Amino acid sequence: MSTPALRTIPLKSTRAQTYPIISVALVDNDERVLHSLSAMLTSCSTNSFSILWTCTNGSDALNRCADRHNRPDLLFLDMSLEGLQGADICRQLRMDNSVTPVCAMTCYSLNRYMASAIQAGAQALVDKNDDNALIQAANTLVHGFAYPDFETPKTAFVRLRRECDSKPQLSPREQEIMELCARDGLLDDEIADKLHISQGTVRKHLQHIMAKLGVKSSRQAVSQWLTQDHHHE
Known about the structure:
Elements: E1 21-27, H1 31-42, E2 48-55, H2 58-66, E3 74-78, H3 86-96, E4 102-106, H4 110-120, E5 124-127, H5 131-141, H6 153-164, H7 172-182, H8 188-195, H9 199-213, H10 218-227
Helix pairs in contact: 2-3, 3-4, 3-6, 7-9, 8-9, 9-10
């Protein structure tokens, strides 16, 4: 008696759909927020987000983004930071980067930062306590789009570079010192302690700032800084 031939039955593929890995960087002065956002993004089912790095201050973020190996596909940036503010970080980044989309975020009313986020070259502004809004913004920005009234990275880059040609620009360190003077009301010795530099270095930075702004005193420099689009209280 012959043995019946076995019939093979093709199995359905059980492999889950895969997505291209999108590198993300997060900037917020609260470590707990960074941990929470990292966990939320890496567990997202609509895209494969990978956290490239996180940091709590603007100078560190700018240094990392300047390194092509550390440049993320998407940057989430809190608008209210200590020292260098979110809008100033975004503006500095966009001046040198026409590709990386920036999603500005805040726990305050969006109206509080909407104008400054647009002017600084961000692509969206969302509530950082709203996970759905963060995911929606990420999915929109990584596909090359910007939110209504916001510009694409390339368009913002071109606009800011044109604006830069018509007025002097403060360096990231100079902007940080101006924020500490104007927003926190710190004196030279307090700024030196906070930034771990000498008082002489602080005074030299202030001299450069006054020369760039065309003023004769640090008080005039602070007054001009507060009347421009830098102070977002």
